[in-house]
């Protein structure tokens, strides 16, 4: 155990934890997007409400959800740790701009991007996850949907009401823009930490990373925009 703790405190260990937690969150975004796209099913919310009920009552899903929160916390902790360590190791700024020219804007501002994403995540969790768990969301009577003989929350109507507000839609769009920049560097950085960034798969990883960092945030952003326009 002491050897593991020592490794996780080392520079390599910290980077590995950032990479592994980051990859888990990347996979989670795909799953989360697949569920959220059901908001656009055009069935009055039945598909999404069924999905929401399943997510809230499946033991395996709830375990993964708790792991997701844990990995978010670990990702934040290790990112702050690495940022502070790197800053302390390089107290004097570069004399020229050569380093900045060679590096991507997103890689030089991962701390800022990560902070903005964390703020967005706090607002997002408070607006939805917290309200679904502890709020007073309207319910749907038992028997409304085939196979569901119990009262369930009307998650769809609550989200539709939230996305009818232009201010929240704007916040969501800003959040997805920041996420795109964060993913653009983070995706490739994670594979590089795992030793694949300089392999024969480098070009493939870069291509997939660019597609992923654009496609996932765009699809997430489409949801509130479409729902807002439908209610305008």
List descriptors:
single chain, 232 residues, mainly alpha, 3 helical TM bundles of succinate and fumarate reductases, two-stranded antiparallel ribbon, 2 strands
Describe this entry's structure for a reader:
By secondary structure, the protein is mostly helical. The chain has a single domain (2-231), classed as Fumarate reductase/succinate dehydrogenase, transmembrane subunit (3 helical TM bundles of succinate and fumarate reductases, Up-down Bundle). 76% of the residues lie in helices and 2% in strands. The chain is built from ten helices and two strands; from the N terminus they run αααααααββααα. It has a two-stranded antiparallel sheet with strand order 1-2. Helix 2 (11-36) crosses helix 10 and helix 9 packs antiparallel against helix 10. It is globular and about 60 Å long. The N and C termini lie far apart (58 Å). Mean pLDDT is 87; it is low at 97-102.
Compact summary:
The protein is built from 10 helices and 2 strands. It has 232 residues and is an all-alpha fold. The chain has one domain (2-231): Up-down Bundle (3 helical TM bundles of succinate and fumarate reductases).
Helix and strand layout, with pairings?
Blueprint: H1 2-9, H2 11-36, H3 46-57, H4 59-89, H5 98-102, H6 105-108, H7 110-134, E1 139-140, E2 152-153, H8 155-162, H9 166-193, H10 202-231
Antiparallel strand pairs: 1-2
Helix pairs in contact: 1-2, 2-4, 2-9, 2-10, 7-9, 9-10
Distance between the termini: 58 Å
CATH architecture: Up-down Bundle
Order of helix and strand elements from N to C terminus: HHHHHHHEEHHH
What name is given to the CATH topology?
3 helical TM bundles of succinate and fumarate reductases
Beta-strand percent range? under 5%
Q: Please report the first level of CATH classification, the CATH class.
A: Mainly Alpha
Overall shape: globular
Q: In which order are the strands of the major sheet placed?
A: 1-2
């Amino acid at each position: 155990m002491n050897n593991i703790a020592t490794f996780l405190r080392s520079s390599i260990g910290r980077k590995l934890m950032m990479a592994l937690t980051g990859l888990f969150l990347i996979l989670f975004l795909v799953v989360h997007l697949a569920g959220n796209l059901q908001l656009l099913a055009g069935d009055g919310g039945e598909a999404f409400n069924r999905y929401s009920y399943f997510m809230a009552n499946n033991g395996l899903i709830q375990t993964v959800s708790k792991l997701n929160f844990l990995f978010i916390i670990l990702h934040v902790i290790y990112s702050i740790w690495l940022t502070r360590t790197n800053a302390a190791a390089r107290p004097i700024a570069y004399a020229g701009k050569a380093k900045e020219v060679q590096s991507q804007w997103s890689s030089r501002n991962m701390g800022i991007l990560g902070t903005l994403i964390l703020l967005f995540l706090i607002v997002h969790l408070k607006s939805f996850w917290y309200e679904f768990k502890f709020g007073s969301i309207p319910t749907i009577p038992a028997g409304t949907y085939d196979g569901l003989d119990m009262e369930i929350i009307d998650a769809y109507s609550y989200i539709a009401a939230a996305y009818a507000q232009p201010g929240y839609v704007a916040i969501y769009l800003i959040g997805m823009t920041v996420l795109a920049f964060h993913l653009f560097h983070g995706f490739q950085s994670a594979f590089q930490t795992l030793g694949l960034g300089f392999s024969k798969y480098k070009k493939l990883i870069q291509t997939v990373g660019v597609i992923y960092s654009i496609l996932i945030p765009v699809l997430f952003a489409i949801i509130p925009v479409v729902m807002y326009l439908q209610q305008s």
